[in-house]
Amino acid sequence: MIPFTKLPFKINQVYLTSDTHYGHKNICSATTSWEAENAANCRIFSSIPEMNDAIVNGINAVVRKTDLLIHCGDWSFGGKENISIFRERIVCDNVILIQGNHDHHVSPEFLEFTHDFLAFHQIGFFQVESLKFVCAHYPMAIWHQSHHDVPLFYGHVHGSYENVGKSLDVGIDNIYKLKQRYTPISLQEAYSICQKKPAFLESHHNEFTS
Fold it and tell me: What secondary structure letter does DSSP report for 171?
């Protein structure tokens, strides 16, 4: 069985986010070169710095220095420099990054040099106090212990797709739809949302099997 890593934080200290895309020209309405169909999904900002400031301020407004921020991928654009620039602007000391499809600049060598992140995973299997949960960049139909009410927190889809089962898109564009601001969501709130959803049990696994 895959072990869940116990994180040394309280439930009310943990926050989730994804797909911040710090510095991404095309996701900003004022600078995008996307065709009209895709541009309709841009974030409405007058400049990239304004967008970046909204992302940073949204994080720092809720995540304290001693808290934990779990980021489910697609951290930043604009080269390696923006990885550390964005990280240095965040007050929180503890950030775990789950690898997204745009995180190709993040490597073990880069992390060893910068020490930007507490940990870097392709998929995270975590436990905080009594709560177990899985973090990934992509949505999945079935994940480790999904049939035992363990939720999945994911990104990638920017609020365009609601996954099956007890799962939640924690990307900032989806949370913006819920809260009208670009901000992380607390583990407590995300977990509560997921537990109100029915489990997806389309396999030989169910709530009675291991």
Answer: S
